[in-house]
TrEMBL record:
GO terms for biological process: glutathione metabolic process; hydrogen sulfide metabolic process. Keywords: Metal-binding, Plasmid. It holds the Pfam family Lactamase_B. Residues 39-229 form the Metallo-beta-lactamase domain. PANTHER family: PERSULFIDE DIOXYGENASE ETHE1, PERSULFIDE DIOXYGENASE ETHE1, MITOCHONDRIAL. Coiled coil: none annotated. This is MBL fold metallo-hydrolase. GO terms for molecular function: metal ion binding; sulfur dioxygenase activity. Gene3D superfamilies: Ribonuclease Z/Hydroxyacylglutathione hydrolase-like.
Length: 312
């Protein structure tokens, strides 16, 4: 008789959180920066016992009308890191975002850090490399990043222990980072009163998202959860991005305890048909699949972004 499958990465994440809940020295300090243009939240995650930190899901300003980029969003992050004399160990991406350009290369040049993402980015690179006809010079092996994380991989931020959970569904490459008692699920979950991420991008899967979320909801209820976006639910008069696993389990309007996979699948797929594509999906993905780098310059020295017609 085959026994239940033991989810070792989840067990490891649970143990890490439980240990941190008992030991304040293992609880990270989190400073968050909200970009109202893309509704994105970037997080600086600090070790309370050293100057080590990580930056999660950075944002590069991009004006679609002019094609101009700037570092306005990264300015406050860089100022904070420098004013606090922090040592940036990691630049962490939860996935290849479709709503903003990553500022990882700019941050790496200014404050350092190893750039990491999930190993399944190679699937995203393969799919979107074809969509953007990126050519053979575009490597589809994730080599643009310093580290590709697999489910259950562990790493350190100073003295802080951290681990990785693969949570596909929104995209094939989505990760949740667990650092001490804090969970960073990327776009997998929004605030409980707003719900969950869409699944209609290439490689998205509503059933996989449901299973990924239920996996995260097996983490301790007291775990802090820091989200990547907030679009402000209609009844709320302020933006918010911090909640708990317990609040998601009891109150998430799409996937609280008691919602079945079939119910979620029906809701999510029907809802996704009503949503427009993100305004910056085409520039964002073709930059983010390159680890935030722009396509190589052409003969005139100018870099160009492509707009594939009638594809998405």
């Amino acid at each position: 008789m085959i026994g239940p499958v033991i989810d070792h990465p989840l067990q490891s994440a649970r143990a890490l959180i439980e240990h941190a809940l008992q030991d304040p020295a293992k609880r990270p300090i989190v400073k968050s920066f909200f970009d109202p243009q893309t509704f994105t939240v970037s997080h600086v995650v600090r070790d309370p016992q050293s100057n080590a930190c990580a930056i999660i899901d950075s944002v590069l300003d991009y004006d679609a009308a002019s094609g101009r980029t700037s570092g306005n969003c990264t300015g406050p992050v860089i100022d904070y890191v420098k004013s606090e004399s922090l040592d940036v160990c990691w630049l962490l991406e939860t996935h290849a975002h479709a709503d903003h350009l990553s500022a990882a290369p700019l941050l790496q040049a200014q404050v350092g850090g190893k750039l990491a993402i999930g190993h399944e980015i190679v699937r995203v690179q393969d799919v979107f490399g074809k969509i953007f006809n990126a050519g053979t010079e575009f490597q589809r092996d994730g080599s643009q990043f310093d580290r590709l994380f697999n489910d259950g991989d562990r790493f350190k931020i100073g003295t802080l222990d951290a681990t990785v959970l693969h949570v596909p569904g929104h995209t094939p490459a989505c990760l949740a980072y667990v650092v001490g008692d804090a969970v960073f699920p990327g776009d997998t979950l929004f605030m409980p009163d707003y719900g969950t991420a869409r699944c209609d991008f290439p490689g998205g899967d509503a059933r996989l998202l449901y299973r990924s979320i239920r996996r995260l909801m097996q983490l301790p209820n007291e775990a802090r959860m820091y989200l990547c976006h907030d679009y402000k639910a209609p009844h709320r008069d302020h933006y918010a991005w911090e909640t708990t696993v317990g609040a998601q389990r009891s109150d998430n309007i799409h996937v609280h305890d008691g919602v079945s996979e079939d119910e979620f699948y029906s809701m999510r797929t029907e809802r996704d048909t009503t949503l427009p594509m993100p305004k910056l999906i085409l520039p964002s993905v073709q930059v983010n699949m390159r680890a935030g780098q722009f396509p190589p310059p052409e003969e005139n020295g100018v870099r160009y972004l492509k707009i594939p017609l009638n594809v998405l």
